Amino acid sequence: MTRIVAIGECMVEIAPTGQASEYRMGFAGDTLNTSWYLRQLLGPEDQVDYFTALGTDSLSDQMMDFLSQADIGTGHIIRRKDLTVGLYMIQLTEGERSFNYWRGQSAARTLAQEADTLSQALAGADVAYFSGITLAILPSQDRERLLDVLRAFRANGGSVVFDPNLRRRLWHSANEMTSTVMAAGAVSDIVLPSHEDEASWFGDNNPNATAQRYAEQGAELVVVKNGPGQIATLTNGELSIHTPISVTNIVDTTAAGDSFNAGFIASRIQGRTPAEAITAASTLAAKVIQFRGALVQLPLPDSPMNLSNT
């Protein structure tokens, strides 16, 4: 059995249905999306828990019910009075998405206020998963507290997986974003950056440069996503290049990276090599982006639910 704890913010998602001016409500968020796909990909003996903070209002209750119905563990979620959950709206143009956010009263911004609570949530876990968005929504002292807890978790044998997921609008400055993300890379075993974002803010000339930068911080395995371009992996100083699945019918790229991350993590848990994990992750992401919304029910056509069957 493997226990994974994802740390971050689940939000109310308002997404277009495909009909003019028509939207539907759901729940999503980068680390939650990955958790949701992981829960479907892994076996029943594995445990996927989500750690965040919610309010005590009815919308927060609905989110708790949603997570429970998805068989995602909620036992360590913090509940805060007088706070609620964040909301975002997706707008699509030829399959590419843009977002508007409302998260000023989001309880998730308080998820790292107590080190003991964080440590208790991670106790007995094998893998901790978090993102740059997890860090971006936190006050600076809470970011440091979260990284300290993750550092201790790693030192005690846990595996830390990090997706930088750079979102400049969530940070006070570009320097704050880049310095914090690199500090997070230094406490992580696996880093899953996206080259386009990294090139914009770090000036990386190619995916290899992105991978090398995180490896120099101490990451044991770096997987550089690159949209439809070639994917680079760097482990033990060895660089490998992989060609992703080609997709022509792109409908919604909202969870492309999140589902890729889930496919990769699940495959590694199931004993696959990095190259095999890249293939499984790329295949899953290629299928997910042909449907609307962040969360697409598996199995998709020709896509077994459990990647160990591929």
Describe the structure.
Residues 1-295 form the Carbohydrate kinase PfkB domain. Keywords: Kinase, Transferase. This is Sugar kinase. The strands form three sheets. The chain has an eight-stranded mixed sheet with strand order 4-1-9-10-11-12-13-14, with helices on both faces. Strands 3-2-7-8 form a four-stranded mixed sheet. With 310 residues, the protein is of the alpha/beta class. The protein has helices spanning 30-41, 58-69, 115-122, 132-136, 140-155, 174-185, 195-202, 207-217, 256-269, 274-288, and strands at 3-7, 11-16, 23-28, 47-51, 53-54, 78-79, 87-93, 96-102, 127-131, 159-163, 190-191, 221-224, 231-235, 238-242. The chain is built from ten helices and 14 strands.
CATH topology of the domain at 3-9 and 29-52 and 106-289: UDP-N-acetylmuramoyl-L-alanine:D-glutamate ligase
What structural class is derived from the secondary structure elements?
alpha/beta
Residue runs with pLDDT of under 50 for 5 or more positions: 303-310
Largest sheet: 8 strands, mixed
Radius of gyration: 18 Å
Tally the beta strands: 14
The strand line-up of the biggest sheet is 4-1-9-10-11-12-13-14
On the 0 to 100 scale, the average pLDDT is 91
Distance between the termini: 20 Å
Instruction: Give the DSSP E fraction (strand runs of 2 or more residues).
Output: 15-25%
Entry summary:
By secondary structure, this protein is α/β, with parallel strands linked by helices. It has ten helices and 14 strands.
Provide tags for this entry.
disordered C terminus, UDP-N-acetylmuramoyl-L-alanine:D-glutamate ligase, 310 residues, four-stranded mixed β-sheet, alpha/beta, eight-stranded mixed β-sheet
